[in-house]
Amino acid sequence: MFSETSLESTMRAHASAVRHRLRNPAPIRPQPKPETPVIKNSGYRVPRMANRPYSIKWREIVASTAGRHGLTEKDLLSPDRYVPTVRARAEAMWLMHRYTDMTISAIGKRFGRDHTTVLHNLRKNGPTIEARFA
């Protein structure tokens, strides 16, 4: 009658292999947890201070950052987009992330911003700010 072509035999073999994989799935291996939080789509790791002998309050960070940049706390917490204010705010966000146990969402709420804004700041300005404080 009909002879089986090489395409048909290849398709049959593929279908058989797919059926076998569906019936016998590979075991799921747990992934190891990273040592420090990793910001996805970036090679930059956000360093965290472990076992701090003292605790720093977020208000202290905002006050010291504002004083260092010649601004007020109100300026840093405002929606102002003036470049010196934005840079000081970025530094304060980075310091809060590094030296407090606050989540990214909590940091964003303190500044009246979304957590994605804080993530963007950590990705874009984190290495620069870290070099300044190293």
What structural keywords apply?
single chain, 134 residues, mainly alpha, Chromosomal Replication Initiator Protein Dnaa, Chain: A
Task: Walk me through the topology.
Blueprint: H1 6-23, H2 58-68, H3 73-77, H4 83-99, H5 104-110, H6 115-133
Helix pairs in contact: 2-4, 4-6, 5-6
Structural class: mainly alpha
**How many strands, what sense, and barrel or not for the largest sheet?**
none
Tell me, what is the CATH class of one domain?
Answer: Mainly Alpha
**Number of helical runs?**
6
CA radius of gyration is 26 Å
CA-CA gap between termini: 80 Å
SSE order: HHHHHH
What does this 3D model show about the protein?
By secondary structure, the chain is an all-alpha fold. It has a domain at 58-133: DnaA protein, C-terminal DNA-binding domain (Chromosomal Replication Initiator Protein Dnaa, Chain: A, Orthogonal Bundle), CATH 1.10.1750. It has helices at residues 6-23, 58-68, 73-77, 83-99, 104-110, 115-133. Helix 2 packs antiparallel against helix 4 (83-99), helix 4 crosses helix 6 (115-133) and helix 5 crosses helix 6. The N and C termini lie far apart (80 Å). The mean pLDDT is 82.
Short description:
With 134 residues, the chain is mainly alpha-helical. The protein has a domain at 58-133: Orthogonal Bundle (Chromosomal Replication Initiator Protein Dnaa, Chain: A).
